[in-house]
Structures are given as structure tokens and as C-alpha cells.
User: Fold these one by one.
Assistant:
Number 1:
Amino acid sequence: MRPGQHRQADRAAKPAARLKVGFVLARSFTLSAFALFVDTLRLASDEQDRSGRVLADWQVIGSTRHLITASCGVQVAPTSDFVDPSRFDYIVVVGGLLTVENPVDQETIAFLNQADAKKVPLIGVCTGTFILAAAGLMKRHESCVSWLHYKEFRERFPDLKVRSDRLFNLDRQRGSCAGGSSSADMAALLVRKYISRDAERNALEVLQIERARAAADVQPRRPLYDDYDDARVKAAMITMEQFVDGSMSIEKLASTVGLSRRQLERIFIDKTGMSPAKAYSRVRMERAKSILVQSKAPLIEIALDVGFENASQFTRTFKRTFGQTPSQHRAAASRAH
């Protein structure tokens, strides 16, 4: 058999990709969200780092082949015109700057509606969920967006369910993702579902990602002080986060913002509905919760990090704050993986 015939035989013997994804890129899309998603597929599709489309395949699809400019200025060319959406297991819409008036054209909206009619699952990445919502495609589905965009989503789509407490969400025929590094987490879930855990592990190892986070994992989000508009409250809570070990006394905390303890107490009760001590405890517990799901550190180590003398005292405070013990919270996050 000639060398060319060998190659043809190899191609004929190659199994069909188990996971096929079509990407729709919005004008001024977020490059990192797209790159992390597609690179997770690329690395899961072949062994080591050979980039072969063996177990997964993907296309950037669009109404034209014109270059699409990301928010950082890098341009990407579509690799396919709009085809029958049922060729794909998922259509992923990658959003970007919300200041862009028409992030996609009407042909794209029509294509997304066609995909919906054919029961092809749609995923909004970063602000791609805004595009799906504006097209009427998030009704009866819960959206997950970044905390940074939560308020604007609520304002634009007051009748839709939305959350910003988790990294991503898969709700029947819809997926939504906060963007950033969580794009790799969502892609890893699809890889695990359609290909294998080994493929997922290979992709994450090459990307230098220790583990794929689950949908239920909490977003690294804005600090609690962003919920309040009083400058003195914000300044005090920033200081709390800087001294998350609990070493800052309330009296000293008050002096850092030019107030007496009594004045600080009154302002906190008025502006936040809780005392400075309770707010400080909440800040410390939120930090502990983040450490629990992002590391394998023992409870005593986490307890000491957030200012407790022993694990039992830390456990009681954590349960009082979140309704479950630190071990229960970590186990729940582990099961979600």
C-alpha cells in the first residue's frame, strides 16, 4: 500500500468526534473566555498536546467570514458558515462588552432560534447569556452571570431568573457561565460527560489547572463592601478583609475611618443591618468558605487563617453562618465534581 493510501486508511479508521461544539462570537467578545473553553476541548481531544481533533471537534460559526474583533483587539475569523445546528452537540455564544449596541446580527439570532427549535443546547459564556436572553431564549431557564453583570442583567431582564453566586449553570437545554477561568470549568464538564475523565484530566494538566471546579462552586466575587454605598462602611470592610485573621479590634477599626466605636456601630446598623463585629465575622467566614473549596487544607489550618484558636470554635461559627459545617460544605463541593 502506498504512503498516501496508508494516510487515507488512517483517516477512514479514525472514530468520529464524540463532542462537537459550535462557537458564536459576539462583537467585542472576551478572548480569554473563548480561548479557555476551546483549548480545553483541544487538549481533551487528543493525547498529550498533539491538538488532533480526535475526540472533539469545534467550529467558529458566523453569518459571514469577516474577522470578529475581541475586546482586547485580537481578531478571529469564523471557520464555518451557519450550517444545520443539529450537527453540533452544543452551540456556545461568547459575549463581551455590554456597551456594544448590537453584539450579533439578525442572521445570528435566527440561527440561535433554529438551534433552539431543533433542541440543540445553547450555552452563554461571559455576557453571551445576555444575547440569549435578549433573543428570548432564556425563558424558563435560570441564568448564571458574573457578579459584575448581575445588576445589569436584572435591569435588562427583570422577569428572568438569574444568579451570580456560582461559576456556571446547566439548566436543561441551557448553560450559562460567568466567564473568565470558569469557561474552562464548564468545558471540562462537557469533556467529562461526552469523552472521559481521563480526557478532562489531560486537558486540565496541560493548562496547569489543578482541578475542575463544579457548577456549585462559589464565584470569586466582589468583596462584601461593594453591597454598600457608605464610604465609611466600605473603608471599614476593606480593612476587615485586610485583617481576615480577626486581629483588628472594633475600636481600632473605627479609628481607621475617623469614628468612635459607638459611631461605627450606629452607621453599620443603619447601613448594613448588622453590627461591625457581625460584619467582620461574615467577612472571615466568606474567606474560609472560599479556602475550603479551593484547597485541601485541614480545618485547623483554615481556622487559624481566619482567626480561630481551634477547629471546634471555627466549625460552630461556620455552621451558624451557613447552616452546615465546614466538612459538610467541602464534601458537598467534592460530590459535585
Note: Residues 2 and 324 are 67 Å apart (CA to CA).
Number 2:
Amino acid sequence: MTNRVPAVLEPRDSSGDPALAGVTGTQPTLRRLDSLRPNTRPPVRNAILSRISPDGLAALGECLEPIVLKERMVLQEPKRHVEHVYFVESGLVSLRVVAAGSMLETAVIGYRGVVGASFLWGGHLSTHQSVVFFPGSAYRIRVEELRRLVEERPEIREHLFEYVQALTFQCVQTGLCGVRHDREQRLASWLCLASDAADVRVLPVTHDYLSSVLGLRRAGVTQTLSRFEERGLIRKMRGVLEIDEPKCLEKRACCCYKLISGAYASSQSAIPAKELMG
């Protein structure tokens, strides 16, 4: 059961993040707003919340609920009403297109983003399935309450729009990547993007999982990961994969990795049309 948040988060030591330990987390520690020193920025980890002014975050805090993100938890289903928007603090959520018994991942969402922001375009139904695959924590807010707040506080709307632009770009670029780039490039790109999104080097992924979300043959995934390991780029362990040489792995990734990373780093920047083609 979740508790409504009348305050902001205490600073957290990321070395003790429950998501990094591979176990489900506990509810974040809270403190009252009036205990903050004047002009102190509320110390939240979510990249969107961290950019909102203290006054704006205080208004949001009245409506936010802390929630533990458990592995395989389904946050949204396609063609279902969107009830909550989730500001991810830790862990990873897989955004998927599901049709005719098949599934394809279009993006991973970590501490930089939110799940369920489609309401900004006036949509009431989810177009994707959102599933937690790396446990962690988040803050959720009812769509009706967030819709009211973005009308009252334009800065909240602005930060959400900036993120949605980057997320939309990733979804489109991922679709193009699937038909334009080879298996090794796609796997390297996915590992780099997931590592960035969670801000960790150890990912709880299996060969079966990667085969499923990327639409690749399992044997091919195993073969490619073995080559990465032989080159010292990664280390495979039971149920997890550790990235040992992120910079070298980035060189194996297709151009989609840099384009998507750039979109998140600066979603206001114009991306030339020729670059979108990869």
C-alpha cells in the first residue's frame, strides 16, 4: 500500500540502491518541505523532477505516491485507460508494442523519464505495454491530477514535453534500427542504452530476454554475446550481464545509440533528417 507524499526525498546513496542489489526496494524516505533550507533544490533522482523548481515540485509532492517497482509488474496495457503516470527513480521499464501474439520493445525507461506521458497529447488509452524488468522504485500520480498541474504550472508541461520528444524519437529510431542494422550493432546499442537508462553496468538480462525484445534468434544472441565476452567488453554471469568496457562497446553499437543518447541529452536540439535515417 502506498502513502501520499507531502514532502520531498532525502538524498540517497546510489551505491545502496535496491535495484543494483537485484532485489525489490522499499519506500523512499521523506521529509517535510518546511525543513528544507531556503533556495535548496529538492534532491530527487528522477531527471524530470530534478529540473522542476522547488515550488513546482512541492505542488507535485502533494499528489505523488512512492511505489516499489517489482520485476514483471505491468504498469500499463495497450488499449487500456491510462490511470497513472510513473516518474521512475530507479530500475528499468520496458516499453513494448504487442500485436498478434508477438512483441517488440521500442524503448527502455529509467531514472531519466516517465511512463504514461501519452496523456500530454490528449490520449486516454495506452498504445504500449509497460513492464518492469529491472526492479526499483518510482513516484506515481493520477493522470487527472497531473493534467491539472500542467495547466496550472507551464514549467511542468515544458519538462514533460522535452522528455516525450526524446522518447518518441527513440521509439521511431528503434523501429528503423531493427530493419537497417545487424545483430551485433543492435545488441551493443541496446546494452549501452539500458546501461545509461539505469545508470548501472550490471544488467539482469538473459539471452532469452534479449532474443525476445529485439526479435532475434536466441542462438544468434548467444553467439554475439560470446564474441563480446571474448573481446573483454562484457562478462556473462548467471542471470546477469556486466559491461566491463562501455566505451569499447559503444564503438560496436550502431549510430542509433549516439542519436538516441543525444536526443535525451538535448531534446531541444534539431536533429537533421538525414541523421534520422541512420
Note: Residues 44-153+173-179 form a domain with the Jelly Rolls fold (CATH 2.60.120.10).
Number 3:
Amino acid sequence: MELIMKNMFQSLGKSRTANRLAKKYGLRFGAARFVAGETIQQSIEAVRGLNQDGRVATLDHLGEFVFSEEEALESAAMCIQTLDAIASSGVKSNLSLKMTSLGLDISRELCVNNMKRILDCARQHGNFVRIDMEDYAHCQISLDIYRELRQEYDNVGIVIQAYLFRTMQDIDDLHALGANLRLVKGAYKESPQVAFPEKSAVDENYKKIIQKHLLKGHYTAIASHDEAIIHFTKEFVRSNFIFIEQFEFQMLYGICEDLQKQLVKEGYRVRVYVPYGVDWFGYFMRRLAERPANVWFVLKNMFK
């Protein structure tokens, strides 16, 4: 049943029709727990609340269904407005983005130009931008563009997914760049030809890439709610004398709040991924696919 539900939500997340309906009816049925709102101001207030108890953030203006150059330019403009709002409000937050929202599926040149505009703005504000990794079809081109951007910008990082077979080699290839990486397990449905199908294999590969990137001396964001992975990381950095300034834990807005606060009390940096915007449906479906407990939360809200 869990697998059936996971596949169903992953498929719904890619549906253009379902996405249009979600935009029409707004943040209902529990989505507001995981999405900070539809406006920049709502997201800034959410980050301000996180900052008050010691957590930092990364804001993401949600947008995955971009089919025209005009929409891609609008999405880039929203990223720039978000960076401006972070700077003017004084909240502690980076920016995360998906390159498909900037026109990657329309034109590589369009996407790169949008990325450079955003990175120029971030550099002006002394801020940092994280490129979210998407499905396997976008993996290679995302890494290629990241390498191109790193020739000019040092305020950009990218995400690496533990469930892909290629990931260990990607970590090695990015070493020369001194890449700032967010390491995740991976949330997209992929073929067993390119990704580990078993959770245990993903977990083991995740531990290996955490070890590898930390030992190479590069900044590492460990993005997981898995307490076993978090405990493993804490023990590993302690036994290998890795400075606390070299890594951070990252978690999603609305998930494992108590764990986030506990890690802050222990002295670790915790960054919360805070999504906002009207194009929230695909993101929400992936959160439901990841954890059955999220589904029951939504169902309870519907009956209320």
C-alpha cells in the first residue's frame, strides 16, 4: 500500500492538470504545513520565526511547470525579488531554485542567462544560491551548467542525490571545484537502471558520500530527517575532528520541528528549506510520497 501511494503521489506531482487545479483552489488540505505561503512577505515572516529560535533558512520560490520564455523570465524575476526581500528584511536565508523553472527545458542559453542574473544579484547582497537537483533526465545538464557557473561565481552550490548509481563519481568529479554540496537521498521516481531501488542501499551510499565530501574538506549540507543518518554524521565528524563550521543539517519546513530545535540547542547549524509560491503542487506531492505520516496529516485536515 505504501508503494502504491508513493507512486500515485509522484505521478500526480507531474500532472499539469492537477497543478492547474491546485493553483485555482489554493493551499488547502494541509499543504500550508509544508509551504510557507503564496507571497514573498509570507515566506519572509516564516523565516523570521525560524531565525528567532536559532535556525537559518533557504527560500525557494516554487515553480516547475514552465513552458515559455516569458514564464522563465518571470520566475527569474521572482528569485531576484526574493533575494532583495531577504536583504531588505535582514532575515538569515539563502535562496534555492530549480533550473527547469528558469527555462532549462526551453533553452540552455535562456537558463544560464537567468542564472547569471540571479547570481549577480545574490553576489551584490553577499548571499548564496543553491541549485536543486531534479530528476535523472536533468542531472547531467544541471551539473554541466553548475561547472560553467563556477568559472565565474563562488556563491553557488548544487544538490547531489544518494540514490543514483553515478553519485560517487560525481562527488569525485566536483572535488576540483571545491563544491558546496547539499547531499540528499533523492525524492524522484527513477528507473532501477540508474538508481538503487532498495532503501538500505540508498542509506549506505548516503553515508559514503557524506564521509567522502567531508573528508575532502568541502562544505557539506546533510539534508535528511532520518535520525540514524543524523546520528551517523555527528559521530563521524566527532571522530574525524571535522570542524562544526564545515557542515550543516538541513530539513524541510514543517517536518521534524522538535528535532530541528534540538540540533540547534546542541550547537549545530540547522537550515530549513522554506518553499513558497502558487506553483506548490508538485513539491507537495513529493512530500506526501516521501512519508506516509504526511498523508494521514492531510486526511485529518480534510475531515476537519
Note: The chain is about 50% helix and 15% strand.
Number 4:
Amino acid sequence: MGFFERYLSVWVGLCIVAGVGLGYAMPGAFESIAALEYAHVNLVVAVLVWLMIYPMMVQIDFGSIKDVGKKPKGLVLTLVVNWLIKPFTMALLGWLFFKGIFADWVDPQTATEYIAGMILLGVAPCTAMVFVWSHLTKGDANYTLVQVSINDLIMVVAFAPLTAMLLGVTDITVPWDTLLLSVALYVVLPLVAGYITRRRLENKSNSAQETVPGNGAIDALVSKFKPFSVIGLLLTIVILFGLQAKTILSQPQDIVLIAIPLLIQTYGIFAIAYFAAKRMKLPHNIAAPACMIGTSNFFELAVAVAISLFGLHSGAALATVVGVLVEVPVMLSLVWFANKTRHWFD
């Protein structure tokens, strides 16, 4: 591992502090960044995420995708966790904490909105950052792509009815512009770019009569992009925390209260999925990404729906924002754990 990768947790911590400090000191700059969005998708963050995802897409061997169906257990695990476990445990934890444990600290209306925001996070499985977590755990890029694609297809038909059932609201409107733009930016475009790049490298290597066509050139390109991917991740953290600096500093107690059940949910879901993956005897390069997909959230979609249903300054919107702030550091800790326990799957 390089210097940046070895001390990634340190850089993440520094970027969180830097983001909050810069957001407080230069609110105008971050307001300008926040204004650069379309359909609740921030374009600056989208570029940085694209920078992280592109080299991972280059590694996808499209000729091998057809073999994914021969190993369906990883797909089954992802789908069961995402759609039969995660939304309901999130709703249960929200009710347990904000209607029970924290009931004396939060008024009933705000508590209801916090629970709603948590549910929206639970019903929206991740689309973009999963490729980053998969790459950091040396996951099977082909398998990860299929897992994400199937989840996105299910989300198109299942998100609205499942959300409506858990929220008790009948007029859930899916923000199609947010959903489709996110899938296009985070999956389709980098996938097409990666495919074109890979084909060109393979053709160039074939013309040079290499023993292993394209592999050396592909590895070299990914190696060159690695520093940019890490920088993209760190800048994303700075921007996310900078955009929410005012909220973090003005409502620290509420941030902590919301973060507690979200942390329990995230680590709990990962533990369930990881234990199941081990019992199912999945290889680590399939098990780790499968658990990451089931654990992380599609926060752009959750934030957009929270704002449309409850308003920009609602408790539901705040809960989804806290989900954004919690996710990156927590997922990096799970990446570390997955890498440390790789031998469990030998």
C-alpha cells in the first residue's frame, strides 16, 4: 500500500475537521458549490465520485460478466439484505430510539420526521460509492457491477411502495430526475468510458503481441489513477462536511442523536451480511462488496425525497444529511475490517 492508502483513516479525520472549519470560515464558497446541482445531485461531488469510479470501471472484464450467473449466492445475499432486512431494521431502530430512548429529548413531531429520514435512507441502497468500497476490498469488479445494476432495477419498482408502506404515506412520488441522473452519472457514463478505454488498451496491446493482452497497460493506468482516486475521496469528504458545517455546529446534539441509531444500523447490517456470507462460503472478493452494497445508502435519492415530502429544513431532511456525514467514515472502517478479516474466507 502507498503512503496515502496506509494512513487513509488519518487523512479522513483531518478532512472532516478541515471541512467543518472551512465551511464555517468560508460559507459563501460552499454555498456556491451547493448551488452547482441539478435534480438534487451536486455536480462537483459527482465529478469527484466519477474520478474515483472510472479506473474501477476500466478493470471490468465485460467478457466475464456472463459468468456471474454461475455464482448466484452473492446476488441472493445482496438482495435479501437490501430489500427484506435493511429497510425494516432501520424503521425499527428509528422507532426504538426516537419514540422510546430519546423521547424526552426530542418533541414528537421532530421525532417522527427523524424516523422518516432514517427510513428513506434504509430503503435506498447505494449506487455510486459501492464501486469505491469494492475496489478498496479488492472485490470482483464484474460481480459488483451486476449487483449494483440489479439493485437499481429493483429500486425503480420497489422504492415507492416500500417507502409508502413504512412511512404510512400514500402519495410517494419518486424523483425520477434524481434517480435517473444518478444512475447515468455514477454507473452508465463511467461504465461506457471504462469500456472504451479498456478496448483501446487491449487493441493496442494485441497489436504489440503481448502475452497477456491489455493487462499490463490496464494495471499501469489504474496505478496512475490511484492517487487521483484517493484525492477525489478526500475532497468529497471536505465538501460534504463543509456544506453541512452550519448544521453540525448549530445542532450538535441532534446530529449525535440521529447518528447513534444510524451507526448501530450500519454496523449491525454489515455484521448480519458478513456472517451470512461466511456461512454461505462466498469468496472474499464477492462477500465484501455484497456486504458493502447492503450496508451503504443512496443518499442523493433519500435527501431528494425527504425534501419533497417534508421540506428543506425538516427533521427528515436533517436525518438524511446525517446519513451522508456518517457514511463515508463508517464505510472506510468497514473496508479496513473486511481487509483485516480476509483470511476468514480462505
Note: The first strand starts at residue 37 and ends at 38.
